[in-house]
Amino acid sequence: MKTLSLLPLLALLLSPLPLCAQEMLNVPPDGATALFNGTDLEGWWGLGTKHYKTYAELSEEDFAKMREGTLADINKHWSVKDGILINDGKGLYLTTDKMYGDFELWVDYKTVPRADSGIYLRGIPQVQIWDSTEEKKFGIGADKGSGGLWNNPGGSAGKNPSVLADKPFGEWNTFHITMVGERVSVELNGKLVVDAARMANFFEKKTKAPIPKTGPIQLQTHGGEISWRNVFIREIDGDEANEWLRENVDGDYKSIFNGKDWTGWNGPTDKNEVKDGSILAKAGTIYTEDEYEDFTVRFDFKVPPGGNNGLAIRYPGKGDTAYVGMCELQVLDSAHKKYAGLHPAQHHASAYGMAAATRGFMRPANEWNHQTVRVVGSTIQVELNGVRILDADLNQLDPKTLMYPIERFKGRTNTKGHFGFAGHGAPIHYRNVGIEQH
Known about the structure:
The chain is built from seven helices and 24 strands. The protein has two domains: 16-236, Jelly Rolls; 249-437, Exo-inulinase, domain 1 (Jelly Rolls, Sandwich). The protein is elongated, with a radius of gyration of 26 Å. The chain is mainly beta. A hairpin with a 2-residue loop joins strand 9 and strand 10 (183-188).
């Protein structure tokens, strides 16, 4: 029998990838876009761990100069070979030209012993990548593996991955990351390691300001060679984001609106409307028959241009909830020009007149938003479209921030009451309304 020489086989194994194999790399799935084109660094620039204000607030001209000044560095430390993006472990982080809001991100990576890297989401560090066998770093979590939101506070959800999912060195790992608002889920090699955890704003530890609404994707370098391929992104629109939040964050809620009629509700229902599965809150305060102490309520809502409404929290059943309830949480098209001069504690999701919410995270007028409100004791938290925009203790208010003397808010210390919607004219739509009692 004729024997085959091993030399041709070895030559094949050691040769560069054939063209057909290279063409199979970096081809995005349907609906996604390739951030890395497989041939060069087009669409990327260089940035380190920098506060987003250092580039996001620049003029177009100044940003272009800043970007241009980084290209020599990334061309020195980043290269492309056979459809693979390679970094030597040094230099600036590869940073997308485009800013992204809500998205799905797929990334393959392969690294070496003692390497330390990560993926920045909207410019915020980071989804961690490191050597899970490096004993010197076990004290800071390396033994738990990659995929965690490493810059989250100690003990917080997502800080460490829930399972060790890293593959051995020399093998490719695959991330699938979903980000909606500041909520992040991470799958590593098909295993869920972070489940819809809030990602902390590394740059605003003192103020606890939320993560910016948009920002770049960054591939970090930190001391060891790392290779990347198949870097894809798919942007998520508002409706899909709302659905993702309902399915991944909301938890177990009891529906308090059947989508058909006013069963379970009191107040001036004749001045309001049920239409197409939604409440159209127009005038007066409609409220639940049941009363609640500590609870979380979740719902979708949309406002017309300039629309104004409110949430009645621990409402006694009569009177102006802004003063006789624990508070009225504003529901307002804050971006409308007619509200430019409002007091900070009058804008959307603020505890009216008492505590101001962070602005800028509502979708445009006439688009659906998703919101949760958690009320425990004297505290109230609001998460809008996956971003926490209010976290206030109404027993610990600064008198300087109030619209009126604290005595005017007589219901602020209510420990129980109804939940409802306070109409102020233009109809506000609410749907998927549910409550979880604590």
